[in-house]
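Suppose you are handed a protein chain with no further information: no name, no annotation, nothing but its sequence. What can you learn? This example shows the usual starting point.
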Amino acid sequence: MAGLSSTQLNALSTTNLGALTTTQVSGLSTTQAANLSSTQLNALQTSDVAALSTAAVASLSSTQLNALTSTNLQALSTAQAAALSTTQAANLSSTQLDSTQLNALSTTNLGALTTTQVSGLSTTQAANLSSTQLNALQTSDVAALSTAAVASLSSTQLNALTSTNLQALSTAQAAALSTTQAANLSSTQLDALQTSDVAALSTAAVASLTTTQLNAWGSTNLGAFSTAQVAKLTTTQVAALTSTQLNLMQTSDVAALTTTQVSTLTSTQLNGLDSRTGGAVHRAGGGPLQHAVERLVHHQPGCADHHAECRA
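A reasonable first move is to predict its three-dimensional structure. Written in structure tokens, the prediction is:
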């Protein structure tokens, strides 16, 4: 085969190409491989495609690779997939490579993928990317992952994401995070989320957060909670919030606390509330609890003595 010119090889019928042995195909030079037509390449047996040298694979044009059927492309070995150039990788469709081949792509090649390619990744493909590969994606690519792909990521994969890539998540992607995924994010990662993403977390995901995670949150993210999210906080979570954190929350969110949630607040928490937050707790409580909150809160600094309720 090495003695055939590209012109002679080009003249072989698809039947003759299909009859080549793996040994013959493995001996094709980069020039010979680069001059095969797309039809001829697709005429090769899958075992022949797998026999191409890594140099021959690297010599194929994007047009040749794009014309290969999924069956033939998926016959590439991991070594062949790893030999693809960034240009070749960037021109493949997301359905042409299987999870094993995708896993073999270098971080450089992963970073070269387009948003269209990344958005087409299946849940299986996404779930099989290494943490290093995920972090090699451009932030625009992270934002392009489908919500199903994001939901398929393991806690280990998510835990390894940089703050920059986490900040790239869209509100739809944040909303797709499961309770397990949310509960396993580090405090640093949670703090890195955009406020719009915090507000997009499902109420189930919010309820799954540990007290350690919540306690590490600052005013920006705590203030991003919606009333629906606050209403779903567990009594354990509410009891673990500091007065400072409660004071940093939106008044409407504090007012959304249920009577059961308010009943878990300790005297230390209540005594540390400012008049603004205390008033919201007052509106959220009821019955005897309401009066207890009034007595504790309405004498806090900032509550004017001339208010009728402060004199009660």
